[in-house]
Amino acid sequence: MNDLSLRGERLFTMDATLQAPPEVIGPVPEGVRINFHVTGGRFEGPRLRGRLRAVGQDAFLLRRDGIGLLEVLLTLETEDGALIDMRYDGQGDFGEEAYERFLRGEIPPDVHLHTFPRLRTAHPAYQWLQRRACVGRGHADLVRSTVRYDIYALG
Question: Which InterPro entries does the protein's record reference (predicted)?
Answer without folding.
Answer: UPF0311
